[in-house]
């Protein structure tokens, strides 16, 4: 059995067989480094406001963004499991999520068979950027699924009333 290690902006990922283990990264030193960079560039307030209106809360959200992402994925999967989300099997608090693992897809595959192409127009611009990158998707049980759905924008969007999975499937079948 092959074990692979990877990391994103907010979490370490261990890929083992058919599962992915997402471990939240705490980023206090990276947060201080970024704060210094933005202070030198005179962009501290502008950058902090992308995380929250209160600068203190923005700093906290940045440092604990891996924990927030794990919590969001667990919540979204538990409350609103959808066919286009990769299943979150277990959560050990907000520190570790265990998900099913799919096969990597190319950008061309995602562009041709995006699981919710029709919803992209209604999404916030920051979310559209995440929802159009193949690295955030995989092929699971023959369909393209979203792997990384822990950001606040995804949580807010997918908690809105959405068409049922049956409607999504019919839309995708009509496109193919």
Q: Could you walk me through the main structural features you see in this protein, from its secondary elements to its overall organization?
A:
- With 176 residues, the chain is α+β, with helices and mostly antiparallel strands.
- Helix content is 43%, strand content 21%.
- The chain has two domains: 136 residues, no CATH class; 35 residues, no CATH class.
- The strands form two sheets. It has a five-stranded antiparallel sheet with strand order 1-2-3-5-4, covered by helices on one side.
- The longest helix is centred in the middle third of the chain and has 15 residues.
- It starts with a strand and ends with a helix.
Give the tags:
single chain, 176 residues, alpha+beta, 2 domains, three-stranded antiparallel β-sheet, 8 strands, 21% strand, disordered C terminus
Low-confidence stretches are 169-176
Task: Using the CA coordinates, give the radius of gyration.
Answer: 17 Å
Helix content: 40-55%
Question: Biggest β-sheet: count, sense, barrel?
Answer: 5 strands, antiparallel
Structural class: alpha+beta
Report strand order across the widest sheet. 1-2-3-5-4
- Span between termini: 35 Å
Secondary-structure element order, N to C: EEEHHHHEEEHHEEHH
Task: Report the principal-axis shape.
Answer: globular
Percent of residues in β-strands: 15-25%
Number of strands: 8
Count of discrete alpha- or pi-helical segments spanning 4 or more residues = 8
**Total domain units:** 2
| Average pLDDT | 83
């Amino acid at each position: 059995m092959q074990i692979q290690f990877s990391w994103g902006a907010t979490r370490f990922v261990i890929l083992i067989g058919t599962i992915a283990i997402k471990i939240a990264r705490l980023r206090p030193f990276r947060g201080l480094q970024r704060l210094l960079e933005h202070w030198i560039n005179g962009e501290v307030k502008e950058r902090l406001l992308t995380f929250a209106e209160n600068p203190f809360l923005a700093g906290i959200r940045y440092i604990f963004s891996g924990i927030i992402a794990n919590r969001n994925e667990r919540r979204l999967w538990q409350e609103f499991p959808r066919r286009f989300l990769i299943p979150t099997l277990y959560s050990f608090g907000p520190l570790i999520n265990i998900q099913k693992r799919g096969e990597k897809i190319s950008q061309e595959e995602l562009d041709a068979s995006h699981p919710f192409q029709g919803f992209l127009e209604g999404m916030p611009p920051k979310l559209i950027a995440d929802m159009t990158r193949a690295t955030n998707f995989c092929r699971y049980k023959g369909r393209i699924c979203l792997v990384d759905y822990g950001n606040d924008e995804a949580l807010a969007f997918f908690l809105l009333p959405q068409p049922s999975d049956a409607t999504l499937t019919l839309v995708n079948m009509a496109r193919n």
